[in-house]
What does this fold into?
Amino acid sequence: MKIRSLSNILYFPLFVIALGIFYFTYGDNTNSFIWIFAPIVLIIAIYVGQSQIDYWWLTRNPVPLEAPIKNWLSRFGVFYNSLDDQQQEEYEHRLSNYLFAREFSLVGKSEKRDLPEDIKAIIASQAINLTFGQDDYLLDDYDRIFLYAHPFPSPQFQFLHTLEAEHNDKVLILSLDHAVHGVVKPTEHYNIALHAYAEAFMHVNPTKEFPEVHQEGWEPVEAVLGMTKTFILNTCGFEVVDLKAVHIVSYFTDKEKYRQLCPLPAAEFERIFKL
It folds into this structure.
């Protein structure tokens, strides 16, 4: 049996110890009762550092991916299939850990619901593709991914759109249908999931010197993606989007073609992403 959360295992004996100290020292006129603070302090420390503890544990004891997800990667994971056997194993460990460490929710009219694991994996694979050359593949504190069944408004953008990287709350919001189609049919649909992760990556790494791509503009990304600027903007639901994120999507969609059309930005992206 694989343990996915070491922190949950550590809680139990500490609670037992705290209850034991309480039981045997309550009403005692000595100072023995003060010992109850030892397990309480440890419980608080585990609670505060839960994500770091579980991440440390999972990196050393990775849980294998479920067979259907591995089958999906073999069929549709272009980047995954370009890796050697050892790298594919590392990719699987990272994807498994990411799925455990991040909350995915389908947002309805009145409630949030869990998503099937394969849908989570489709979205999460874009984060792993983007960060495979990085140590921080969890993208810092961007720990919640909310998905709507359709384009949505938000407090910040009160019109229908399909993607949003909310930097204050560290939340990614996506239209489920657009996100899935962008991954499984990248020649027909713009990859909004990769775009949102690219925005999050740039926000998490403000000291990295991302290339200025305004001189290159839209023409090369239109050629790489086989999509017009208008199509991409309409897909995202914005009149203006971060052009750097679009170039990152283009780079990861077809590195060879992007290098031919944008050699200088491509060299910078290769330096930054180490891919």
